[in-house]
Amino acid sequence: MSKLHIPFLRTPLLLCVLALLPLPFKVISQDANTEKTILLNLKQQLGNPPSIQSWNSSSLPCTWTGVTCGDDGSVTELDLGLRYIHLGANNFTGNIPPQIANLTGLRTLFLHQNQFKVKEVEAFVDEIREFDW
């Protein structure tokens, strides 16, 4: 009786075994550097506010104010205490995210020059009137 030889099954098996091995440190480092670069760009776009002064290229994002990381060291949450959101002049369509109404610290919201439906905007304004202005 001859053995059945199926060489194409070796590759998927090898890939499964490799997937179970820990990722090389270099790959993890690149991801951390990418997150750091993105967050530093966000800081710059926000006008380098003093509240996130701890965000700098010489420290890890997990040590920064308002940044929470998971067990693997990747950024999982940002808490910036939003007070001002400018979404104007983007021609956004669709729904205004209802979660915006949960931003109790929000004081200014610009929605001009977008394509939101008037009835939706009116309903949203009625909802946010409950904010503590």
TrEMBL record:
One Pfam assignment: LRRNT_2
Protein name listed in UniProt: KINASE FAMILY WITH LEUCINE-RICH REPEAT DOMAIN-CONTAINING PROTEIN
Database matches in SUPFAM superfamilies: L domain-like
Gene Ontology molecular function: kinase activity
InterPro entries per UniProt: DNA_repair-toleration, Leu-rich_rpt, LRR_dom_sf, LRR_N_plant-typ
Signal peptide (UniProt feature, chain positions): 1-29
Top-rank taxon: Eukaryota
Domain Leucine-rich repeat-containing N-terminal plant-type intervals: 33-69
Keywords: Kinase, Leucine-rich repeat, Repeat, Signal, Transferase
